[in-house]
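hey m, so remember when u said the tokens were messed up on ur end? i reran from scratch. heres the input so u can diff it against urs
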Amino acid sequence: MEGTVVAVVLVAVAVLLVLRSGMRVVNQVERGVVFRMGKALPSYRQPGVTFLIPFVDRMRKVNTQVVTMPVPTQEGITKDNVSVKVDAVVYFRVTDPLRAAIEVQDYVFAVGQVAQSSLRSIIGKSDLDDLLSDRERLHEGLALMIDSPAAGWGVHIDRVEIKDVQLPESLKRSMSRQAEAERERRARVITADGEFQAAQQLANASRIMSDTPEAMQLRLLQTVVEVAAEKNSTLVMPFPVELLRYFDKAAQHFGSGAAPTAPAAPVPAPAPPVEQQP
């Protein structure tokens, strides 16, 4: 009787050990690809606890999170013969764990190699201006170039971004001088435009004052007041504008042979008191 109990206990322990050796835990961000006698099963295991046949099944876990992989700096010559150094970053994730485990030995390394060759290719097909200002289009082109072979490995390329474009020092100095010249040109254009507008305003003001004598007289009085307010020793005497116009008309009539009529005596504006410094 005692031998039977011992045998049952031993069998139970053996069964527990076998079950324990066949139990696996798949994390939330993983998928389990099961190989049975060396052959991959068509379906992979979902997150949670799963059981394998001891000594028969083998499981490989594949991470399905987005992988951020920096691309080493690649040196190349652009389409317009400029030597540059460019680095980038690739965001990708596994969408088919079965292919990622079977079709390629190391999908991370494979994606990195394709990314480097694609980056060198895109450098040779692009102008320098495109690398500096039209990066969004280059990002889309790089993503398509890398995603084409990666799709066969069960990998999807989410996004590719160019991080930095390193230029030769001589080219940097040339671009700096060009930018400075462009800023100077714009400043001159703005200054010339301002002077042109000011000249137009002065011409309009002169036309209005010539058509309205009272406005000219008021402007003259305003100028006299401003000069006198500075408390200097200059004596300011207002000169009647009508007298200047009389001389102008006299010169015109003198040329035609007719005598001009004298204008009415203008009423002189009261001159403000002017302080004289000793």
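this time it looks ok to me. Residues 269-278 have pLDDT under 50 and may be disordered. if urs says something different then somethings off w ur setup not the seq
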